[in-house]
Amino acid sequence: MNERLEKICFLPPAADTPWVGAPADDGSIQIERTDGKQVSLKSPLFWYDPPWSEIEIESADVIAAAVARLQVVVSALRSDLSAVDGNPELHQVVSDDTTNGREQADDYLPRMIPYRPERYGLSDRDFDGAAVVDVRLAMRRNSTGRFAFTPEEIGRWEATHGDSPLAGGGWVPAASFPPDVDCLSKLGGKLSQLRLLAGDAAVFASIAPHRLNDELPAVLAAQPDGIILRLNELDLSALELAQSVKQTRCMMDEQQCGHVPLWVVPGKITADDAAKLIALGANAVAIDSWGHKLVNEVKNAQQNSDSNSGYSSLSRHSSQDWVDWVEYELHSQIERFDGLMHAMLYQTPGQRLATLSAEWANTLSIPNLNLPFKPSS
Prior knowledge:
alpha/beta; eight-stranded parallel beta barrel; two-stranded antiparallel ribbon; globular
């Protein structure tokens, strides 16, 4: 995959920087809820909108849990990953040990609840152990261009019978706002309600970028624990992507919301792109393009027992094969991202990025490298 932000480079420390050992940092991030509770995540990477309905339900659960074990926050409902009354691995307690005779809180894999306005497939059990609740305030288009859900999505969420599908097996219109919220000025009540339902989760609001000047201040006034900006909904150039992140962070700072995390969904990116977006002002970055590649490989393997992916074992539904494969596919990208994030600890935010382009330097307010030659275009 080509790097989108290749015109931005990471700056090394200055030549006269005193030698120091590698700074200690575990890469974790802390999110403070409006009630003062802290939510800790081990990585600023998340999988925002996995197309779970495109693969078999057992495969979806294996892939979701395998990605979450790499400390990526994975978005999924129980109904995405299991049949009715099932217990998907992503939603299970992974540790309930005691230390020195004292009970510790249950430990779960990092998981996000996609709280859609229609609440198709949502269960009260989804709130148990969730790290983030994502209140989706923007409608998603399906592949036909409609603001609607596909028959496959509805069938998965509602566990409908093949001979009696919801809406007769056609697409189902999507709503634009939670039905129990009249307007943005009353959104705060919904967010408070969700904090009670998910006592240990941060409650975010995700919005589209189309009317950001009007909608962002109104959403921030509702005091979400974080904002998710769905930049993948626009066909942005590389510079527009970088500028959108930087300006949104500035807008939030101007609204006295500098403490509120900004998570971005950028579309196709590399590990370097993800680290650069964080250096530009994001607090976490969606890696949907990495996850969608996994789903496509599994889908192809399920359709063809002689999968062209090179992983013929995937067609045999071996859970451990899939886990090993997910780790193989994602390890190098996550390792590269972690390394770049660690390297940035050596420098202050204003000294981390630069460019050879005067246009990019002026637009993003980053240094324009002063080279003794004129770089070729």
